[in-house]
Design a protein that fits this description.
The complex is a heterodimer. By secondary structure, chain A is an alpha+beta fold. Chain A has 3 helices and 3 strands; from the N terminus they run H-E-E-H-E-H. Chain A starts with a helix and ends with a helix. Chain B has 12 helices and no strands. The longest helix of chain B has 37 residues. Classes of the chains: A alpha+beta, B mainly alpha. At the A-B interface, helix 2 of A face helix 2, helix 6 and helix 10 of B.
Chain lengths: 100, 432
């Protein structure tokens, strides 16, 4: 599991430039699957048609590729289930002052 | 050298395609308010609203400010919305130059009252707009989308109205240059209604349905009235355009359709904003709401004018539509769009590899908030000055609006200046 922890750590370096939070605390990462040196990431964006989608996919891919032992990364962007602010970490919600 | 990082490398045009339109707009907007503060609108108070001076100011505001920022935003938004790249990116260079040249010629024509300059300038602007429409229209066709979101049709309709408005305006300028006799007021009515209601209003409503929830991170709202709002606004705009050819017989009905469409839009906006997840309202949302309020006031003023309130209310309605509804919405959206595009251009390749600023840190949000406390109140009070025939109030409020627009333009300058005059940056870390 050490590699998965490293992947999550690297994913925390990918920030949404508009909101100012990393994709993990924003709750955009739905899942990480590891098969040997191949990693599959399931993620979403805050709103369908978000103009950042392609850039975020690329940043996530680059971040995971930085983990030693990873040789191939597949990023899948999904909208089911849709992202909601409730998916953010408590710390992230407090930081942004989001109301629920 | 700063790397170019479009939103989607295969779809988005270069940063400079939208950015140069934005820069033209940022320069024009404060200057238009300044010129009115210095008395450029005084002919309005003499009832001479068809003067060259008034026409010059209005065209400067539209062709130097609103049209450039709208074209800049559309060149970025349409590829994202349609998932198809701009059909001919190089063509965008040509019609930018044509728009800029045509604007200067047209303004010189209005300033000197010279028919030839008006004709050449109007024809050049018309060719720029038509080429832009061909490029954007071809991008629609290229998308091969069988069924897009409702905004897709709204934007398409607004571009159609823009084409009709430009053809009417260009034709008028050429006919004036040739001293030909033609039904001037019918042409003018067609031109103004097509521009204000058909192009500007339908476009803003279509785009706002996408941008307001996106920027305020709203969730769980419905936009059930969106198709009705867009259909009524477009039908009302078409009705107003035709009404001038029919001696105004369907004008009331058309304005009624526009009013109902606008109220339905406001109802949806209220729900979107109520369901936003960000407690504090950002300047973009504040400006959007101020624009909606100004749009409502413009409609009210239009109805008062039609109900016998006099031509001054009609002029106030036009002013509030242009500088309230259109400009305040553009000012707000630019506070998100320009930093966002610039951030991608400057830091897209560095994100995740090193500490980079956030998009909103590229300008002073305090200054943007300060501009909000100057610009919308000054705009509304300027409109009041026009409605009441109070020239002193109008000029004083235009001076205040100039101050607000200058603060806002300063925020935009903070964003784009490092791209125009790049600071020294270290090399990118080595890739794996």
């Amino acid at each position: 599991m050490e590699i998965e922890e490293k992947i999550w750590e690297e994913l925390k370096t990918v920030y949404d430039p508009e909101i100012g939070l990393n994709v993990v605390d924003l709750g955009l990462i739905y899942g990480v699957e590891i098969e040997g040196s191949r990693v599959s990431i399931r993620m979403t964006v805050t709103t369908p048609g978000c103009p950042l989608q392609v850039a975020m996919e690329q940043w996530v891919k680059e971040a995971v590729m930085r983990v030693p032992g990873v040789e191939e990364v597949e990023v899948q962007v999904v909208f089911d289930p849709p992202w909601t602010p409730e998916r953010m970490s408590g710390e992230a919600r407090a930081m942004l002052g989001y109301g629920f | 050298m700063i790397g170019l990082t479009p939103l989607s490398p295969s779809l988005s045009p270069s940063y400079w395609v939208p950015a140069r339109y934005f820069i033209l707009g940022f320069l024009s907007f404060p200057l238009v308010h300044l010129s009115m503060a210095l008395g450029a609108g005084r002919e309005l108070f003499r009832g001479n609203f068809l003067s060259w001076e008034v026409a010059g100011i209005v065209h400067w505001a539209i062709l130097g400010w609103l049209l450039p920022v709208v074209l800049g935003a559309l060149h970025q938004l349409i590829p994202v919305l349609l998932n198809a790249g701009l059909r001919w990116p190089r063509l965008a260079d040509l019609y930018y130059v044509l728009l800029l040249g045509g604007l200067f010629l047209l303004l010189a024509g209005f300033l000197r009252g010279t028919g030839v300059l008006l004709g050449v300038g109007g024809g050049t602007v018309l060719s720029a707009v038509l080429l832009a429409l061909v490029n954007l229209g071809a991008s629609f066709v290229r998308s091969h989308r069988e069924r897009g979101p409702v905004q897709y049709y709204g934007i398409g309709l607004s571009l159609l109205f823009l084409g009709l408005t430009a053809v009417a305006g260009g034709t008028m300028s050429v006919l004036l240059a040739l001293n030909s006799s033609f039904p001037f007021l019918s042409f003018l009515g067609f031109h103004i209604s097509g521009g204000m209601l058909g192009w500007l209003t339908v476009l803003i409503v279509a785009v706002a349905y996408r941008l307001i929830p996106m920027f305020s991170l709203s969730h769980g709202y419905s936009v059930r009235w969106q198709p009705w709002a867009l259909a009524l606004l477009a039908a009302g705009a078409a009705g107003e355009m035709v009404s001038f050819a029919l001696a105004g017989r369907i004008s009331l009905l058309a304005l009624g359709a526009v009013t109902v469409g606008f109220l339905l839009f406001l109802r949806d906006v209220a729900e979107i904003v109520a369901r936003r997840r960000r407690r504090e309202m950002e300047p973009v949302t504040l400006y959007s709401l101020a624009a909606c309020a100004a749009g409502l006031l413009a409609l009210f003023s239009g109805w008062v004018s039609l109900a016998g309130g006099g031509w001054r209310y009609g002029v106030a309605a036009m002013y509030l539509g242009l500088f309230g509804w259109g400009s305040l919405m553009a000012v707000g959206q630019m506070l998100k769009i320009v930093p966002f595009l610039t951030w991608l251009h400057r830091f897209g390749e560095r994100a995740g590899k090193e500490k980079v600023p956030l998009a909103r840190e590229l300008y002073s949000e305090k200054a943007a908030r300060f501009s909000f406390f100057l610009l919308p109140p000054a705009t509304v009070l300027s409109g009041l000055g026009l409605a009441l025939g109070e020239g002193t109030l109008f000029r004083a409020m235009e001076a205040l609006a100039f101050g607000g627009s200058l603060v806002w333009a300063f925020c935009m300058w903070q964003v784009v200046a490092p791209v125009l005059f790049p600071p020294r940056m270290g090399p990118l870390p080595a890739r794996r």
